[in-house]
Amino acid sequence: MTDRLFFYGTLMTGFDRRQRAGIDPMLERVGRGRIHAVLFDLGIYPAAVPDPDGVVWGEVYRALDIDKVLAGLDEIEGHSPAMPEVSLYNRVEVPVVYEDGTVEDVWVYFYNAPLGRAERITSGDYLEHMRMR
Q1: Model pTM greater than 0.90?
Q2: In 3-state terms, what secondary structure has residue 29?
């Protein structure tokens, strides 16, 4: 099991969601990378959905206490390991590609509910999308 996490939305730098959840002191930033997924704007936060042809950019962190961090994130993201089919987001281990080409596994939360008419973020970069809004 990896101790790395991939954040592509409001858990990234510039938002206060990690601090509010109390997990920020247990995280160490590793760098920027990308996963295979597509990104949508749900209004108050984004949603990534796995897609082998898509690219979503985000930040990678190392958890100093992976069990505590995952428990906190599961609560934030509405993920129930015992009932993933009814979870708002599901936690999945996927490969991330760093800017230097290095690859390693990370945990990411993929959206698990209907997207409705959510706008696709074609750049795959939520921070860029927010700057353009």
Answers
A1: yes
A2: strand
For the chain, the C-alpha Rg in angstroms (whole number) is 14
Report the alpha-carbon distance of residue 123 to residue 38 in Å, rounded: 9
Phi then psi for residue 61, to 5 deg, are -125, 150
Q: One-letter amino acid identity for 82? A: A
85 to each of 7, 42, 78, 91, how far by Cα in Å?
22, 20, 11, 11
Please state whether beta strands 4-7 and 27-35 pair in parallel, antiparallel, or not at all (unpaired): unpaired
Q: In this predicted structure, what is the pLDDT of residue 45?
A: 93
- pLDDT tier for residue 3 given thresholds of 50, 70 and 90: very high
Strands (E), the chain: 4-7, 27-35, 37-41, 46-50, 56-63, 89-98, 103-111, 119-120
| Structural domains of the chain, with CATH | 4-132 (3.10.490.10)
- Whether residue 36 contacts residue 50, with contact meaning beta carbons closer than 8 Å, is answered with yes
pLDDT digits (tens, 9 = 90+) for 22-81: 888 999 999 999 999 999 999 999 999 999 999 999 999 999 999 999 999 999 999 999
